[in-house]
Q: What sequence folds into this?
């Protein structure tokens, strides 16, 4: 699966994107965040505060319980503000 990181999420992880084979137990966006957090210090830093980083699955905003089955891309980004 292709993972894409934006803004300070990208800076903390140290790369703009990567392709990973996810284990079968990673079934939702929330599962993916937990799995990534355990991959190393840079991921733990990016996802340290639960619920802050937003996700999109195949370019559609997603909640933690969104299934990943059949998805090609998950993007992670910080909250956005407008004005």
A:
């Amino acid at each position: 699966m292709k993972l894409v990181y934006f803004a300070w999420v990208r800076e903390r992880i140290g790369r703009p994107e990567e392709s990973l084979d996810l284990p079968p137990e990673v079934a939702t966006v929330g599962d993916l965040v937990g799995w990534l957090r355990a991959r190393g210090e840079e991921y733990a830093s990016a996802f340290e505060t639960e619920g802050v980083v937003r996700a999109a699955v195949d370019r559609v905003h997603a909640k933690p319980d969104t299934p990943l089955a059949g998805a090609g891309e998950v993007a992670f980004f910080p909250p956005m503000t407008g004005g």
